[in-house]
Amino acid sequence: MPRDHYLNATYGIRSWLLTTDHKRIALLYLASVTFFFFIGGTFASLIRIHLLTPNGFLVTPEMYNRLFTMHGVAMIFFFLIPSIPAVLGNFLIPIMIGAKDLAFPKINLLSWYIYLIGGSFVLYSFMTGGLDTGWTFYTPLSSVYSNSAVTPAVIGIFINGFSSILTGLNFIVTVHTMRAPGMTWFRLPLFVWAHYATSLVMILGTPVIAITLLLAGLERMFHLGFFNPALGGDPILFQHLFWFYSHPAVYIMILPAMGVISEIIPTFARKPIFGYSFIAGSSIAIAVIGFVVWAHHMFLTGEATYAAIAFSFLSYVVAIPSAIKVFNWTSTLYKGSISYDTPMLYALGFIGLFLVGGLTGLFLACLGLDIHIHDTYFVVAHFHYIMVGGAVMGYVGGLHFWWPKITGKLYPEFLARIAAVTLFIGFNLTFFPQFILGYLGMPRRYHTYPPEFQVLNVMSTAGSSILALGYLLPMCYLVWSMRYGKIAGPNPWPATGLEWKTDSPPLTENFHVTPHVDWEPYDFKNRKDLGLEAGAPLAPAHGDD
Amino acid sequence: MQSQLPLYPDQASNFAPHVDALMLFISAICLFFAVAVTATVIFFFFKYRRKTPGEVGVPIHGNAILETAWIVVPLFLAMGMFAWGAVVYVDFRNSPKDTLDIYVIGKQWMWKVQQPNGLREINELHVPIGRNVRLVMASEDVIHDFFVPAFRVKMDVVPGHYNTMWFRPTVAGRYHFFCAQYCGTNHSVMGGWVTVMEPSEYAAWLSGSSGSGENPVVAGEKLFVEKACSTCHMPDGKGRAPSLNGMYNNKILLADGSTVTADDAYIRESILQPNAKIVAGFQPVMPTFQGQLTEEQILALTAYIKSLQAQPVPATGSGIAPASGKK
Fold first, then answer.
1. What gap in Å lies between CA A229 and CA B264, rounded to an integer?
2. Does the distance separating the beta carbons of A536 and B57 come in below 8 Å?
3. What is d(CA B40, CA A28) in angstroms, rounded to the nearest whole number?
4. Do B114 and B253 reside in the same domain of the chain?
5. A48 in any annotated domain
6. Rg of chain B over all Cα atoms, to the nearest angstrom
7. Per-residue H/E/C for B56-115
8. Which residues are bridge partners to B120 per DSSP?
């Protein structure tokens, strides 16, 4: 371990709560998003246990509706959206571009406090009556009819939005202005490109959800008629506004995970990523096209037929950049030198699960097919493959990949591989049966269901217990490794990014001297400093390298 | 009969085979890509596994031909899915002319159904085989969704809007219907059974059960007088308001020069927000009936107004646009 690093630079509770070091703020976020992950995960477990029998035996309908609503709110707004950007992005972006910190360190701390305040309002809502509107807050159910604590939840999510906006702003300014000498745009790690695209969505989309939920809150509190038809409003307007943010929000969750995968795969295949500019460009394309597909959530609201056709078309177009990424990741493995380290297992698991999640999106974008599978378990399975199979696998894989950098310690490799495989199996067993359930016609958000759906529900619940184990395991050994893990050294894998050129854990200032970048990204062959058999290719190279 | 673990629900409407065919088509393409990518990943994973600790991979940066191929080919296939899906959807969204109209009202947490002869059902829907059935749906409170898996159809039922959907039942039997849009506490039990019957059985069932509910046209006629609609909307077109005879499903010329088709949604809007669209040649004098009529009363009025379609159009006209070339 280095003598001085950001963890031992100062001591005491104040040195953490008032820190402006992006690395410490990342750890503050790590603790808080983990807290919300386990709250949301507990709700999910209760849902799955309840659904073991057709009539449900655990909770009342009122409680069941609160469980799936609070599961969604906790997981989406307080775990998935901040997870990779605010934890890994916060920690890594300045180091990856050779900067000492983000452009606005105090705003970075402010965004964490805003997150905490927003989170407190939402927890207050959970504890004083709960929330039973669904995470989608559809009006007029949320704005008129619900008897749950909607107002504090809406205020909490409104406040939390500013945390997201400030983080996005900070990232964009940092990437534009603080790159080290020689760190050109096309030498940026793809993780940074992905976060740049994510930040654009955060800045442009989040204000819309904030305003939308504010309007719903005003309608609830002061009976202003925005969405309630009895007051002259239109409930469909709410859905347009809501999905204008909440569809791009899917890309806020998945793009950073794609960034993580784009770092892990070249590192453990020890070769440059295939099609760097296509992967970088596809991140931007997803961010841009992702803003014009929102009404594919509304094919059956009675929206105009021609509007539906246009949104279906655009939804197929946005699938292409994701496909480009998958093909490029796969091709990166060709003639690589591949190892089975834990982060690589997560990356390959990500490819498989994201592939299923992405391909089933094609089913839902299909107008004719969506008539049947809309609002069924097919949708539930589809977005969990993207959100859990994609975003969470990316997050956990990224945590393992950079854990040695964050803590300076190695985790127990064997246990970590077992956890990765457990997660993969548990995930598929939980969610694959839900595709079939959905096609058979089981609607989502049901606390009781016809008996013919029971077998598949039991399979799903069985899978979820394996999945839960898969999450608890890393939680235990990662915490254990902070104290007892082996010393990692600056570059244990080895990997090529700037973050691996500094100590583990890094100094508060990140680097002893400002780095000068004179190498191309993911270049293993010409990097003598990595200590590999550089310049000894396996076989004659093909392709236009 | 299906096995214990079926992969698809019963097929009992004209849409079911189309939706299932789409499902098979997209599944086949997706399965191909899923297997191809997974097999490639696994193959590379074993073939190129690291042999010595210091080994590095061959630096290959990309290939323009491959990139083009995997942009163009998936885009081409996606457009196929898009086009076929759109064809099925357009068919679903445009009901044929000769429909059997059944009114459906969703409220927390039950479905109220009214057959054309006025017969009421709750959480039950009886339909005949072979007829094009159109459901005209309204909600009394929050958004619901009428979903019949065996028919492969669903449509949101939105307060303040009329949504319609149609299907043609093909196989007799009893099938689940569900509320598919989350609507509050008892969302999961807001469902029931669709009974598909032979046309003769359906006719017998309708007549055998009649008398339990008032024919909506008759109820609407009473309301039309009770609410004083008849004092202005006179059949000869000489009142302060346009005649409603022969109006339904025709083009109406508006004061601003545009035209609108007098469908269920237009009639509903004209009752609740009379000033939204003013018929050419008339003044905006009608009061709003927002909050004064229940959804069922609005449906009854609509049914009555539709029944006037068969009445002769007054010579003075009622803002009905001159027939254009196509009917």
1. 17
2. no
3. 40
4. no
5. yes
6. 27
7. CCCCCCCCHHHHHHHHHHHHHHHHHHHHHHHHHHHHHHCCCCCCEEEEEEEECCEEEEEC
8. B114
Asked if A448 lies within 8 A of B88 by C-beta distance, the reply is no
Pair (B190, B74) in one structural domain:
yes
How many Å apart are CA A336 and CA A37, to the nearest integer?
35
ipTM of the complex: 0.91
Tell me how many domains chain B contains: 2
Domain that holds residue B268: 216-310
Nearest residue to B103 via CA among B111, B92, B91, B93: B111
Q: Is B324 within the bounds of a domain?
A: no
CATH number reported for the structural domain that contains residue B277 in this entry: 1.10.760.10
pLDDT tens, position by position, for chain A (545 residues)?
A: 888 999 999 999 999 999 999 999 999 999 999 999 999 999 999 999 999 999 988 999 999 999 999 999 999 999 999 999 999 999 999 999 999 999 999 999 999 999 999 999 999 999 998 999 999 999 999 999 999 999 999 999 999 999 999 999 999 999 999 999 999 999 999 999 999 999 999 999 999 999 999 999 999 999 998 999 888 899 999 999 999 999 999 999 999 999 999 999 999 999 999 999 999 999 999 999 999 999 999 999 999 999 999 999 999 999 999 999 999 999 999 999 999 899 999 999 999 999 999 999 999 999 999 999 999 999 999 999 999 999 999 999 999 999 999 999 999 999 999 999 999 999 999 999 999 999 999 999 999 999 999 999 999 999 999 999 999 999 999 999 999 999 999 999 999 999 999 999 999 999 999 999 999 999 998 888 888 875 444 444 444 44
Query: Which residues, including other chains, have CB under 8 Å from residue B124's CB and lie 6 or more apart?
Result: B113, B192, B193, B194, B195
Q: What is the pTM of this model?
A: 0.89
Q: List chain A residues with CB under 8 Å of B147.
A: 375, 441, 443
CA pair distance A312, B99, nearest whole angstrom: 28
Same domain for B209 and B160, yes or no, is: yes
Cα end-to-end span (Å), chain B: 45
**Do residues B182 and A134 lie in contact, with contact meaning Cβ atoms separated by under 8 Å?**
yes
Same domain, B205 and B243: no
CA nearest B78 in A: which residue? A316
Q: Is the peptide bond before A505 cis (omega within 30 degrees of 0)?
A: yes
Look at chain A and report how many structural domains it folds into.
Answer: 1
Cα A190 to Cα A186, A225, A475, B65: the distances in Å are 9, 46, 27, 22
- B23, A544: Cβ pair inside 8 Å? no
Determine the structural domain holding residue A118 and report its residue range. Answer: 13-528
**A319 vs B contacts (CB less than 8 Å):** 74, 78
